[in-house]
Specification:
heterodimer, A: 469 residues, mainly alpha, 3 domains, 15 helices, B: 120 residues, alpha+beta, Arc Repressor Mutant, subunit A, 3-stranded antiparallel sheet, 3 strands, 61% helix, globular
Chain lengths: 469, 120
Amino acid sequence: MSDQNGNDAGPAQRTEPAEHVVLEEQIDLWRGYVQRRRAISAADVDEMEDHLRGQVSDLTAGGLEDEEAFLVAVKRMGNLDEVSREFAREHSDRLWKQLVLVPEEPGDSGRWRELAVVLALAVGAGIVLKVLLAATVGNELVLVRNGVFAVLPFLAGYFVWKRHVSWRVSAVLLAITTALALVVNLYPFESGPYQEPGMTEFLAITHTPVVLWLLLGVVYAGGAWRSSARRMDFVRFTGELIIYLALVALGGGLLIGLTVGTLSLVGVDFEPFFADWLLPFCLPGALLVSAWLVEAKKNVVENIAPVLTRVFTPLTIVMLVAMFVVLLVNGPLTDVDRELLILMDAILVLVLFLLLYSISARDPHAPPGIFDWLQLVLVGAALAVDAVALTAMLTRIAEFGFTANKVAALGLNLVLLVHLAWAAWLATGFVRGQRTFGAIERWQTAYLPVYAVWATIVVVAFGPIFAFA
Amino acid sequence: MHIDKDLVAASATPLVLGILADGESYGYAILKRVNELSGGRMEWTDGMLYPLLHRLERLEYVKATWGTSDVGRRRKHYAITASGKEALAERRQQWAVVSDALKQVWQDVQPGPAVAEGWA
């Protein structure tokens, strides 16, 4: 996508006469090379590029060919290590990567406008949520059913605005979302005596966010949802968003705790204001602001999710091996119920996240290393534990028949199993040197729509199939 | 001609401030001006100019603004500030003392080049 504002448009996007194509490529490469130095910021590279271009055009005016002029200009720029050390001495703070969220220089107003859009959308989501809250007093189930429909479209709106998503794509997605909202609200789900949701309704409520989130991926990709790279970007975005959201929530919780504590000392009850006004506006606000932060930091700050996978992969292996032993020793698993299946699903999802996020940050050209072996062990252990649990569950289901919950848990388990088993197969090929890493990466992103399809089936088809029980 | 690194470093600040005292300029133009002034004999490592400019900016001797070049590229312009002018005047006095002292030394060692080569 080309940035219309031209703030961060690289040299490649400028139109230059065709004969300078090689020169442009070389300058691009040089930029990339310089940009890797932490002490040299993007603005410094701009400045030095301007210098380089000035030098090159003077030299070519003096009769040198593009290529010769480029070489001379780069040579005169000096040894990059020394220059970078000099920059580091001047800007030691830069060795800590810094995030500039809003521009300090006047005239570069793109970021401010973006923040304004984000805040406006957050307020919009807050108002919708507030209206929903007011309209559903005494009927919390309606609120739970529709909360996600009130918030996520605003997040989608941010990406529609940011990525210039076409009207056609937006309209299709809006139609699908509306259809889902109608299904969830109009299906005659049965509920329990205390207004608690029935099985199929509960499943519909828990699976709609998944569908909507993956639809958001289409908007996030700017409509190019078929692209494997864009899908991986969405995976990265999701991981970082979860972490940022958790941090923002922690900070918000601290502020609220301090406020409540102080106000209670002077005898003011903060609770009603908190529940009626603060929460409906803060929850979508936190989501949108976190999304904006993740968007802004994208290239500047290292992703944290892959770092966490490094820490938790070995620990998860230990946990899985212990589980496997315990399940085998304490078997046969005749008394287990669907809780075991749900736990297994959760474990497989965890393993999948660990796999996905370390893949998302791996250099595809690096040779297989110890961590790739660890991951293989991780997936293998997860599959072994799941196999034990699954055999136990299948015998149980054969005995007592299917319910919506069991089918949903089993279905998800199978979907995850296929994903992980094939990933393990590909990873085996990779560590043995028979496959490239690209194949593993492509499989991860190619499989993502399966989750959307499965979640849609659970939302749309399970009600009618299981008589809305 | 190769000029010793320390000498380049010591003279760089007054040179840059002096050039900027003539009027606002940008990196490449400053460097070209240095070349002109020294008749091409003072060769700087181009990249080193920028950390220096940023240091002067931090010391508030110069003020930087982003503008655009005639072909529409982003370009950072530097202008000298009042405290930059003060610093320049001070450096000028220091250099005058140094250069006076050096002048007398050069006069004392009359057949200069032969001795200098012997020591080099």
